[in-house]
Amino acid sequence: MKLADSYKQTQYQLAGHGKRNIEVLKEAFDQVDGEMDSDIYGEGHVIESFERKIAALLGKERAVFFPSGTMAQQAALRIWCDEKGSRKIAYHPLCHLEIHEEDGPRKLHHFEVTHLADETRVIEMDDLINIDDGVSAVLLELPQRELGGRLPSFETLQKISAYCREKGIRLHLDGARLLEVLPYYKKTASEVSKLFDSVYLSFYKGIGGIAGAILAGEESFVNQARVWKRRHGGDLICLYPYIIPADHFYEKRKDKMADYYVSAKELAKSFNACNGVTTIPAEPVSNMFHVHLPLKKEEAEAFIAEIHEETTIGLTAKVQERGNQVYFELSLGDNYQSIPKDALGHLFTVLENKMKTSV
Amino acid sequence: MKLADSYKQTQYQLAGHGKRNIEVLKEAFDQVDGEMDSDIYGEGHVIESFERKIAALLGKERAVFFPSGTMAQQAALRIWCDEKGSRKIAYHPLCHLEIHEEDGPRKLHHFEVTHLADETRVIEMDDLINIDDGVSAVLLELPQRELGGRLPSFETLQKISAYCREKGIRLHLDGARLLEVLPYYKKTASEVSKLFDSVYLSFYKGIGGIAGAILAGEESFVNQARVWKRRHGGDLICLYPYIIPADHFYEKRKDKMADYYVSAKELAKSFNACNGVTTIPAEPVSNMFHVHLPLKKEEAEAFIAEIHEETTIGLTAKVQERGNQVYFELSLGDNYQSIPKDALGHLFTVLENKMKTSV
Q1: What is the pLDDT of residues A227-265, one digit of tens each?
Q2: Is the CB of A29 less than 8 angstroms away from the CB of B22?
Q3: Residue B162 contacts residue B152 (beta carbons within 8 Å)
Q4: Entry's InterPro entries (chains A, B) (predicted)?
């Protein structure tokens, strides 16, 4: 059976909050009064009150709701570039703009990109020391998803922030998963955000909404972001189909991030106890990590599909490959806690045994 | 009382399908099974089946759902520009890209725009005769919204289409309100669309969905449009919150466009019978028209607010001004038919009397 199909047929899943189906929308709207007015082109109570709420969470003057982080981040970086009069920006070679946006940042905004750090590690203070003064903005992603959700230390963030301010370089936070790293940093969203000039937060990762993002910063920055939202085609007449679920699931899960983080550490430990299996990071610093297998991609797919059939616990629907690394991503949410302990125990017995015969 | 507030308090409204409130979403999802899978980044039954359905309606090979027409049309024109290797495009000076997109088309795509026709009339065949051969694409908007929804003749469309094909210029249709003009042309959507290389259709105008658009054309064109959707930040993980309502309201209203057209002609006649009031077009060719008043903008706003209070029928929440013209737009939908005839009669008696004393 194909991996994705075998995953769909499992009874439990290690990652996530449950199926992405229409019920997610229905749950969010169940208690909402049908007479409530829609937002209209960025105005109205439903959008303005949510923007104010998340701006306050992030300790920023203003916030604007975007349909996507792709759009929000391109807008943010373009604003900082226009401010300085230079299209030079710097980010990690595995950041979202580099690998998931079909080169939109260059094709639409003509950014001139410098890569910081490399595919094996996150950005550290030393990576910025020789940075071109002409760089308008540096983007940091916390956690660095494509590296299994790794993080620099909070002290490093403080140093990078101070350095960028001194150099007149704007610092932007790809905080798609910002809430997910707060338990590790033992900081509030506002304490992390204040190190950055602009912050993007996603509502369908750990929060588990349908789609949508917030971009926050000072008032003049956010006013410009609203104009770029219109230019990109993101100033939809009604965004409430995403805003109401974003708010609903934010309230439902904002205080569960520490649980997801604890679960991730526990689960990673179980994987690392299996001979040949390793996780990155070895000890997670958020709700996510990567599981690396000493197999070729096709072998890993068949291997995991068999585990799905034997255990009815879903590990992943997709195996990834980078260089000679074969791995899959796990982002923990509500699902993990609902798996019976003996079923989990059985999963790791099966995994351990299969590893012995497969490798 | 302010015009917008007085409009909100009216019992009936001449235009539209009813309030833009959460009930629109609730109605669309009421009969949908919660177990139905979401679309995921452009894939899945819910998005693919709708794209196939609208492609068939428009007689095109493929279609792609976009969150907005702004994004869809910038993508379409960029594809045609890249094909020819020239950023020159041509459209009407009052088209959406020129006046509602914060100059996004130039700032993101560096289009070099030639205006065809002027602010008093639609594009005719003669406007294209001396067009630069380097122009990659011409955009026609049917009906031309900012001119009260005026149209060229179908014969003119055929001539323009043949001319562009001969010259190697791509012809794009801003068909945001395409279904609304079919009763006047006495043509199918496919018969109009086949004159164009690419077609955009909106789902929250006459159809009355929440937001969203379709862009249709040949397979290679649509494949490129999907890439531009990703680049713009429009390839959302889930677009079903717009697609399911688009489909629901398309089915509900696709066969009512002739009724809306007949209503528009009847209502325009009543306005034109009032001394000093005129409509553009004098006889509508779709469900929409503009009502021009011989008053200054502030006078018109106070005048209409008074009518709202006296008749409890809403004319408009917004008066517009262009040059020395003061007018408001009416786009007819389900609301008009629900107004009692005697209430409508009373409205025009009040309007006639007030015009006598105000002008």
Answers
A1: 999 999 999 999 999 999 999 999 999 999 999 999 999
A2: yes
A3: no
A4: ArAA_b-elim_lyase/Thr_aldolase, PyrdxlP-dep_Trfase, PyrdxlP-dep_Trfase_major, PyrdxlP-dep_Trfase_small
Terminal Cα distance for chain A, rounded:
21
Kindly tell me if the per-residue pLDDT of B31 is higher than 80. yes
Query: CATH homologous superfamily for A3-19+256-358?
Result: Aspartate Aminotransferase, domain 1 (3.90.1150.10)
**Scanning every residue of chain B, which has its alpha carbon at the shortest distance from the alpha carbon of A23?**
B34
**Mean pLDDT score, A309-324:** 96
Cβ atoms of residues B285 and B151 within 8 Å: yes
β-strand pairing of A170-175 with A137-141: parallel
Does residue A69 register a pLDDT over 90? yes
What sign for the dihedral angle of Cα A217, A220, A221, A225?
positive
- 8 A C-beta contact, residue A286 and residue A177: yes
Set of chain A residues whose Cβ sits within 8 Å of the Cβ of B38? 20-22, 24, 210
pLDDT on residue A6: 97
B97 to chain A: closest CA residue: A231
Q: Is A99 on the interface with B (CB under 8 A)?
A: no
Task: Name which residue leads in pLDDT, B52 or A323.
Answer: B52
Are the C-beta atoms of residues B16 and B318 closer than 8 Å to each other? no
Buried b / exposed e over A230-267, threshold 16 CB at 10 Å, is: bbbbbbbbbbbbbbbbbbbbbebbeebbebbbebbbeb
Is the distance from CB of A73 to CB of A100 less than 8 angstroms?
A: no
Say which CATH topology domain A22-251 has: Aspartate Aminotransferase; domain 2 (3.40.640)
**Distant-in-sequence, close-in-space partners of A230: CB < 8 Å, separation ≥ 6:** B70, B101, B102, B104
Nearest-CA residue of chain B relative to A73? B233
Chain A touched by B101 (CB under 8 Å): yes
Contact A182, A175 (CB under 8 A): no
Q: In whole angstroms, give the CA distance from residue A144 to residue B145.
A: 47
Bridge partners of residue A65, in order along the sequence: A214
CB A133 within 8 A of CB A167: yes
Tokens 């095109």 sit at which residue?
B60
pLDDT of B6 reads 97
User: What are the tens digits of pLDDT across the range B243-267?
Assistant: 999 999 999 999 999 999 999 999 9
Interface membership of B269 toward A (CB under 8 Å):
no
**CB-based contact A290:A329 (threshold 8 Å):** yes
| A314 vs A332: CA distance, rounded Å | 12
pLDDT in tens, B292-348: 999 999 999 999 999 999 999 999 999 999 999 999 999 999 999 999 999 999 999
The residues of chain A that CATH labels 3.40.640.10 are 22-251
Task: State mean pLDDT over B266-274.
Answer: 98
Q: What is the CATH number of domain B22-254?
A: 3.40.640.10
How far off is chain B from A55, nearest CA to CA, in Å?
22
pLDDT given at position A1? 75
* Chain A positions in Cβ-Cβ contact with residue B239 (cut-off 8 Å): 211
- pLDDT classification of A130: cutoffs 50, 70, 90: confident
Question: What is the model's pLDDT at position A358?
Answer: 80
**pLDDT tens per residue across span A82-119:** 999 999 999 999 999 999 999 999 999 999 999 999 99
User: Phi, psi (5° rounding) for residue B268?
Assistant: -60, -40
Judged against a pLDDT cut of 90, whether residue A357 lies above it is answered with no
Q: Which of A20, A36, A104 lies closest to B21 in CB terms?
A: A36
Which residue in B246, B307, B349 sits closest to B10, CA to CA?
B307
pLDDT in tens, B131-159: 998 999 999 999 999 999 999 999 999 99
User: What does the alpha-carbon distance between residue A347 and residue A351 come to, in Å, rounded to a whole number?
Assistant: 6
